[in-house]
Design brief:
Elements lengths: L23 H8 L2 E8 L6 E4 L2 E5 L6 E2 L10 E6 L3 E6 L6 E3 L2 E3 L1 E4 L4 E4 L3 E8 L1 H15 L9 H18 L3 E8 L2 H8 L1 H16 L7 E6 L2 E6 L3 H17 L2 E3 L2 E3 L3 E8 L7 H17 L5 E3 L6
Parallel strand pairs: 3-4, 17-18
Antiparallel strand pairs: 1-2, 1-11, 3-5, 5-6, 6-9, 7-8, 7-10, 10-11, 12-14, 12-17, 13-14, 15-16
Helix pairs in contact: 4-5
Length: 310
């Protein structure tokens, strides 16, 4: 027998409203919600991966989300969607393990805000959010790692990414080429047509270069009129790519107030494993030396750094 008791609520006065179904605005908002992994520590800081179905994370080029970190296995872990904004993560027998909120796991269901650590330096945060959050996050990522004028990657991105690319190529014995580029007589452009003309040249040049790059090529503004290009190709192909870029720039019409400006570019290429370098700074130094040879040799040319340093 259930004892009678006084209720604070009167069913007659506070009856549940009968509706035709869930609110359409709420349904629309839920449909726009997606699962994301956001890099909050590591060399791809701020980048987002939208998870649809399932995704593999690792340093292998076949991974859905590739992160180059010396402690990450080729295919390190897998994430897949669960209902109601949940995400399931599974360690794939990685060498160094997968950690969720500081605890090593084999499998784990994630809630919004949980943090996944993989490798030595990489931490991902799970976020169940809408397109507005994604747009804001990508904007923050771009502002931190891209040059404001040209939208090429900036020197900070180059420094962080080159270290891991070098380590991976050194360990695997795989192809890695660094092309150092410099606009010929760029000061002449600024002095004769003004800095706004120089800015136009930089913006147009980056667009010309981007049109010739592959998906894995990384083009960075190193400083002023200097640029770097990281590409995973053997020496002959890297030199050919440099020449294709050089010719495209020389043939492009850089027009300022109705006048075509003379713009050419000199380049130096250094490659591994055909040449052994102790550090990524040594690789950069070799590419810079080859660039100097191009400048001294008449400019508007590409020089490949030889294994003997000549």
């Amino acid at each position: 027998m259930v004892d009678d008791f006084d209720s604070d609520y009167d069913d007659d006065m506070d009856a549940t409203r009968v509706t035709d179904g869930p609110d359409e605005d709420l349904l629309g908002a839920l449909k726009d919600m997606h699962s994301y992994l956001v890099v909050i520590a590591g060399n791809r800081l701020g980048e987002m991966l939208r998870v649809e179905g399932q995704a593999d994370i690792g340093r292998d080029q076949k991974a859905t989300f590739r992160i180059v970190d010396e402690g990450i296995s080729r295919i390190h872990c897998r994430v897949r969607q669960l209902p109601m904004g949940k995400l399931f993560v599974e360690d794939l027998r990685s060498t160094n393990g997968t950690f969720v909120n500081g605890e090593r796991i084999e499998t784990q269901a994630l809630a919004d805000g949980d943090k996944i650590q993989i490798g030595s330096n990489t931490v991902l945060r799970y976020a169940f959010s809408d397109g507005l959050d994604e747009g804001f996050q990508r904007q923050m990522y771009d502002s931190a790692l891209r040059d404001g004028l040209t939208k090429a990657y900036n020197k900070r991105f180059y420094s962080e990414r080159m270290e891991t690319e070098f380590f991976t190529a050194q360990r695997a014995g795989s192809d890695l080429a660094l092309i150092m580029m410099d606009i010929d007589h760029f000061k002449h452009v600024n002095d004769n047509w003004g800095h706004p003309a120089g800015d136009m040249v930089l913006r147009d040049l980056v667009q010309v270069v981007h049109a010739l790059l592959g998906a894995d090529d990384l083009f960075c503004r190193y400083g002023g009129e200097e640029f770097t290009l990281i590409t995973h190709t053997p020496p002959a192909e890297a030199q050919a790519l440099g020449n294709a870029i050089r010719e495209a720039i020389a043939n492009h019409a850089f027009i300022w107030r109705g006048e075509r400006l003379p713009v050419t570019m000199s380049m130096g290429v250094a490659c591994m494993p055909t040449t052994t370098f102790a550090t990524h700074d040594a690789l950069l130094g070799a590419a810079d030396s080859a660039l100097y040879v191009s400048k001294e040799g008449g400019r508007n040319r590409v020089t490949l750094h030889a294994a003997n340093g000549e």
